[in-house]
Amino acid sequence: MAENQVGMEEEPEIIYIADDEGNEEEFEVIMKFEVDGSEAKYMMVAPVDPEADESDVYAFRYEEEGDDIKLFVIQDDAEWEIVEETFNTFVEEEDEEDGK
């Protein structure tokens, strides 16, 4: 259903997302993936802030325009289910690899 494109890079990919007040916050890209049969691309990110809860993970649909990335909030329930299922599968696979 979904094709993962998870890179195991040494350097994490960092993006900056502005909050409601315009302050940019730093996030690490956990994974990017595309859904088969669709041109939609998705990104899972987590805050880099050491005070942030480790379980805080955010999902966005994104589009690339040259070097820029535009993020879109996922509002459709069906779309959210696909993203959630893909992320849960990724976490399960990581846990199995780690022997948990």
Show the helix and strand layout.
Blueprint: E1 2-4, E2 14-18, E3 24-35, E4 41-47, E5 58-65, E6 68-73, H1 77-97
Antiparallel strand pairs: 1-3, 2-3, 3-4, 4-5, 5-6
Which short descriptors sum up this protein?
100 residues, alpha+beta, 6 strands, 21% helix, UPF0473 protein C1I60_24060, UPF0473
The domain count comes to 1
Strand-and-helix sequence, N→C? EEEEEEH
Rounded Rg: 14 Å
Number of helices: 1
Overall structural class, as computed from helix and strand content, comes to: alpha+beta
N-to-C span: 25 Å
Roughly what is the average pLDDT, rounded to an integer?
84
Taking pLDDT < 50 over at least 5 consecutive residues as the criterion, the unreliable ranges are none
Q: How helical, in percent, are the residues?
A: 10-25%
Strand content: 35-45%
* Largest β sheet strand count, sense and barrel closure: 6 strands, antiparallel
The gross shape turns out to be globular
